[in-house]
Amino acid sequence: MRRASKSIHFRRPARVRAAAFAIVGVALIDHFALAMAQNDAKSACARPVYLTFDTGHMGVAPLVADVLRRQQVRVTFFAANEKTQEGDGSLGNHWAPWWKARAAEGHEFASHTYDHTYWRGDLPGVEPRFRIQPSAGALAGREFTWDAAKYCANIAYAAERLQDHTGKKPLPLFRAPGGKTSPRLLAAAKACGYEHVGWAPAGFLGDELPSAQYPNDALLKKALRDIRAGDILMAHLGIWSRQDPWAPSVLEPLLVGLKAKGFCFETLRTHPQYRDWIAQRGG
Q: How would CATH label the architecture of 50-280?
């Protein structure tokens, strides 16, 4: 008579079982980490644009903040101590809580020169000197000769005031008022730790143009038509001369429209032209 075969099971020692479970656990963790990394890569900003705001009369600043919060868009603010509709200047104590709230929302900050100081020309000589005209402060409208150290100090003071108000270190960047510069001015600013930021041609959003000739709907259509991935965009926190304010009436449709076209928004901290400079400067 044939005996039924009996299977024999060997019980693994506890240490072997623990090692096996550990290997499986590590594999599962690696699997989930890879899946999360892939999801992050998919959700990364593939077609970024970089929205920036310069200061202005600040009358629309609360409305701009509301739109940015609602649309979950982070931007980079360039600040000078400009005359405002209320308060003691855009970098004065009146606006300090507004700046602090923007820092809490994750926005970035940089200097626009403290006195909104326009470069008017280079002067001859071995050492760099410039014709300068502030448009804000007690010396507004007058022309002066500044050396590189004085120009740098004006950049730095705006950054210091931003840090005082926000508790956050500003980026080591600046924007010259009107975007007016020279190679010599840019070299002097870079030597004292500040890289200049302009804007893309399509990124000039037109909020400082006369509203009769450049109505808001036309500016919106042009921006949605022409903006491309990688562009730096520029608008203001209020322009005195514009009769029909650009913000917030154009701002929210612009953000919604750009998102619908597949664009996403980043601050200048991640811009490929500036991120290494920012990292090197400890920004």
A: Alpha-Beta Barrel (3.20)
